[in-house]
């Protein structure tokens, strides 16, 4: 059993899931790109589950962290993978001191504590795991735990949020229509250039002209999707590149290791991307 679960209280990385109030003085930095903040607030107020759709590294997780802080809810994050079972989400009996004891899984903990439960890359999970979520996304807002006979009703404030990258392995993996229709879907993409420059500056503390040049380069590199590049450079990669530059790594070297090399092993594509780096700096 692999499990990747992170629990945070709002913005604070306390690991606590029982405190609804965030103790963090500052919100996780998030620059809105459209009306996503208002839409999410309304979904939360109306107990609607939300699906964040968009490429990797475009700000979905940061957005949820920011919204949890804004709404003053604990945040429990679950990174989905193809081994994730329903028990990993709900809980299981474990042997402790010669007797078995029930241990809540992260989904159950979120239900009881009124947390925002964020399932990152939900499409990676098996269908029989995803089906567990259905009763939580309609009027029932409840979860029946067969093994204990308990029916748990979601505490006020509980909200289910999933993320999903529609471009990735689209032919192999997709969500069933019966699952998709249970969510309000917010489309995410890489931020518009001016916003992306602000984000990269804020996150790396690098100067504006270099950040602007990096964003310009990323826009050109993103057109390589037409030439067979499976994943284009994300805002996350830009931030990492800018951080290296801000800490003294030469610009072209930082672009090589943080912007180009993570994207492809194809020598022709990598060579063409390096040429663009040389033209940009
Ligand atoms: P995703 O969950 O979509 O894979 P993340 O939320 O982890 O991506 O975003 C990657 C990084 O990009 C963040 O850590 C943050 O530095 C930056 N980022 C992207 N979009 C924004 C935004 N709108 N506001 C602030 N930071 C952003």
Automatic annotation (TrEMBL):
It comes from the Bacteria. The keyword Nucleotide-binding applies. Residues 1-23 are annotated as: Disordered. Residues 196-278 form the CbbQ/NirQ/NorQ C-terminal domain. GO terms for molecular function: ATP binding; ATP hydrolysis activity. Keywords: ATP-binding, Nucleotide-binding. The keyword ATP-binding applies. Residues 50-183 form the ATPase dynein-related AAA domain. Belongs to the CbbQ/NirQ/NorQ/GpvN family. This is AAA family ATPase. It comes from Pollutimonas thiosulfatoxidans.
């Amino acid at each position: 059993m692999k499990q990747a679960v992170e629990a945070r209280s709002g913005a604070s990385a306390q690991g606590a899931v029982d405190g609804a109030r965030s103790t963090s003085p500052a919100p996780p930095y998030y620059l809105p790109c459209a009306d996503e903040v208002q839409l999410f607030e309304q979904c939360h107020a109306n107990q609607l589950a939300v699906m964040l759709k968009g490429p990797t590294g475009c700000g979905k997780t940061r957005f949820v962290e920011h919204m949890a802080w804004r709404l003053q809810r604990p945040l429990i994050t679950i990174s989905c993978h193809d081994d994730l079972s329903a028990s990993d989400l709900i809980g299981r009996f474990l042997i402790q001191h010669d007797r078995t004891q029930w241990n809540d899984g992260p989904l159950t903990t979120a239900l009881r504590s009124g947390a925002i439960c964020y399932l990152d890359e939900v499409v990676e999970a098996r269908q029989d795991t995803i089906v567990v979520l259905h009763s939580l996304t309609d009027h029932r807002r409840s979860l029946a735990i067969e093994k204990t006979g308990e029916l748990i009703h979601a505490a006020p404030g509980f909200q289910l949020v999933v993320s999903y990258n529609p471009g990735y392995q689209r032919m192999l993996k997709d969500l069933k229509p019966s699952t998709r229709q249970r969510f309000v879907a917010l489309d995410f993409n890489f931020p518009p250039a001016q916003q992306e420059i602000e984000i990269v500056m804020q996150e790396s503390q690098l100067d504006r002209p270099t950040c602007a040049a990096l964003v310009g380069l990323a826009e050109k590199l993103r057109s390589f999707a037409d030439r067979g590049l499976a994943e284009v450079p994300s805002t996350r990669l830009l931030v990492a590149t800018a951080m290296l530059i801000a800490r003294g790594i030469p610009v072209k070297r930082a672009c090589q290791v943080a912007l180009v090399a993570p994207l492809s092993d194809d020598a022709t594509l990598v060579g063409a991307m390096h040429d663009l780096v040389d033209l940009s700096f």
